[in-house]
Design brief:
The complex is a heterodimer.
Chain A lengths: L1 H30 L4 H15 L4 H25 L6 H39 L2 H7 L4 H38 L6 H11 L4 H25 L8 H29 L1
Helix pairs in contact in A: 1-6, 2-6, 3-4, 3-6, 4-6, 4-7, 4-8, 4-9, 6-8, 8-9
Chain B lengths: L4 E10 L10 E9 L3 E6 L5 H8 L7 E6 L2 E2 L5 H8 L2 E4 L12 H13 L3 H15 L14 H13 L5 E5 L7 H16 L10 E6 L11 E6 L2 E6 L1 H6 L3 H7 L4
Parallel strand pairs in B: 3-8, 3-9, 6-7, 7-8
Antiparallel strand pairs in B: 1-2, 1-4, 4-5, 9-10
Helix pairs in contact in B: 3-4, 3-5
The chains are: A mainly alpha, B alpha/beta.
């Protein structure tokens, strides 16, 4: 029953979310540079809230993931004599898959849910109509800074998470006395990386960030909401964002397989 | 239609924001001329808020035609609609729908900062006389949640006046005020209607929605009544006092 409800939610949401995204895109294109004194500080605020403030948490997660995934994988590969596959494995798991997805989910869990509550409450209290009454475009004022801020935040956090995970993983392997030097470890990763990994990672993290921001703003703002519905909108946001990010992730697999 | 009309409604049905197709008020024929002060009265839930939101261009009409400043609102989009909205100040009922995450100063300066692309300090310098006139300069660093209702309403009024509007729509501004606060508001509204210094001496058109009409009989030039979903223009003060309708007696607070 719960799965059926979620599927119904997704099919109902998708066309409206697409329309909401197109309206937001139109606003970005037509209002870039408009009201910079208001919009730029809002974007900075969102980058700080969803990005800079989460760096310590992401670094901590990176340390744990490095030990749990990288350290163990390196140890197992060395034990079975497949140490030359270390770079390929780490690039595939950590660089391409894990870091962007975990960064997006951290932003969703730590800031996204609170943002849906903020926006939903503001909508329920009539603040969106108050913005319109002042001639302020709610999409420009509320949605654009959040989507841009979340996009930059997920892109930045992915880089931090990836680097900390890779370094802590090597630290764990080194502590266990595995026969792998740091230059060999780095050169293995560098050899497995292709130049296209960098633009692809940027595109993927940008999609994760903007998708998270769009779903959050859509659930909080796009339709009239009562205060008692804010909690439900928040859980819906988590489910839709989680599934959306996994689907986007899956869509990138064929591209990586062609590399 | 008179070219000096600020609001012109012909056969307007006010849309219900929550239940499409079931408007709380229909058949509104209403012309508000420049410089007039209207008092629209009706019991709570009669649809005054919906009417004022419609008159502010915030709620599309379910039927009929609405013109603001001589322009039909239906085809307007984007910058044209924004241009109209900048000429209208709205004070919402309750606590004025202030932005809870912004301080008083940020709330009041937001429209100026957004439309004029000004920094907070530059906009704060511009609105300083307005804050002083409304007596709220001492709470400019506070958040709305930390203020009492009468202060919150003054802040909301300051925000609605920030762009020096030509039309001011006040939804139930007197509810719950003590007699001192009431006198202050009455004096201020009279000043706005006759040309407040903040408005550069230009008289604003004012529409006040209320559920208690009697204290405002001396304030409005023209009066209207919403009674059980029906719209009725009453005319001036003499017409109101001469009217014997039971719905009007209720908002006047007369014993039945």
């Amino acid at each position: 029953m719960a799965t059926a409800g979620l599927l119904r939610d997704l099919t109902e949401t998708l066309p409206r979310l697409t329309a909401f995204t197109l309206i937001t895109l139109g606003t970005v294109l037509t209002k870039t540079g408009h009201s910079r004194a208001v919009i730029r500080p809002l974007i900075r605020q969102q980058v700080f809230r969803a990005g800079a403030r989460l760096v310590p948490m992401v670094c901590f997660l990176g340390l744990i993931l490095g030990v749990v995934i990288v350290g163990q994988a390196v140890a197992v590969l060395q034990q079975v004599g497949a140490g030359n596959l270390t770079g390929v494995l780490l690039v595939t798991v950590v660089v391409r898959e894990l870091s962007p997805l975990v960064a997006a989910l951290v932003v969703l869990a730590r800031v996204g849910t609170a943002t849906v509550v903020d926006l939903g409450t503001a909508r329920a209290m009539g603040e969106v109509e108050a913005l319109e009454a002042l001639g302020i475009d709610p999409i420009h004022y509320c949605v654009v800074p959040r989507v841009v801020g979340f996009t930059i935040a997920v892109m930045g956090l992915t880089v931090y998470l990836m680097l900390v995970t890779l370094f802590s993983g090597y630290g764990f392997a080194f502590a266990r006395g595995l026969p792998l030097t740091f230059p060999n470890y780095l050169s293995g990763i560098a050899a497995a990386l292709s130049w296209i990994d960098f633009p692809l990672m940027m595109v993927k993290t940008a999609i994760f960030g903007s998708l998270t921001g769009m779903v959050i703003c859509y659930q909080g703002l796009a339709h009239p909401i009562r205060l008692e519905e804010v909690g439900m909108a928040t859980t819906r946001t988590v489910a839709i964002c989680g599934i959306g990010c996994l689907l986007v992730d899956a869509a990138f697999v064929p591209i990586y397989l062609l590399l | 239609m008179n070219t000096s009309d600020v609001i012109e409604m012909v056969g307007v049905e006010v849309a219900d924001s929550r239940r499409p197709g079931r408007g709380p008020l229909a058949g509104v024929d209403w012309s508000v001329a420049r410089g007039e002060c209207w008092v629209v009265s009706g019991l709570q839930g009669s649809g005054i808020s919906g009417l004022l939101e419609t008159a502010a261009g915030l709620r599309p009409v379910a039927a009929g035609e609405l013109k603001l400043f001589g322009e039909s609102l239906a085809p307007l989009r984007g910058d044209e609609l924004t241009g109209i909205r900048k000429r209208i100040g709205v004070l919402f009922s309750g606590t004025g729908r202030l932005f809870s995450s912004l301080t008083v100063m940020e709330n009041v300066t937001l429209p100026l900062r957004y439309h004029e692309d000004l920094s907070l300090s530059a906009a704060a310098e511009i609105v300083a006389p307005l804050l002083e006139a409304l007596g709220i300069e001492s709470v400019s660093a506070s958040f709305p949640a930390h203020l009492g209702r009468s202060w919150t309403l003054r802040v909301a009024l300051a925000r609605s006046l920030a762009l020096r509007p030509e039309l001011l729509l006040l939804d139930d501004p007197f509810s719950g005020l003590d007699s001192g606060q009431f006198r202050w508001w009455r004096t201020l509204i009279e000043s706005v209607a006759s040309g407040h210094p903040w408005l550069l001496g230009r008289p604003a058109t004012v529409v006040i929605g209320t559920d208690t009409l009697r204290p405002l009989l001396g304030l409005g030039h023209r009066f209207a009544l919403i009674d059980r979903g029906a719209w009725r223009v009453l005319g001036d003060r003499q017409n109101v006092l001469a009217c014997e309708e039971s719905g009007l007696r209720e908002v006047l607070g007369d014993p039945s």
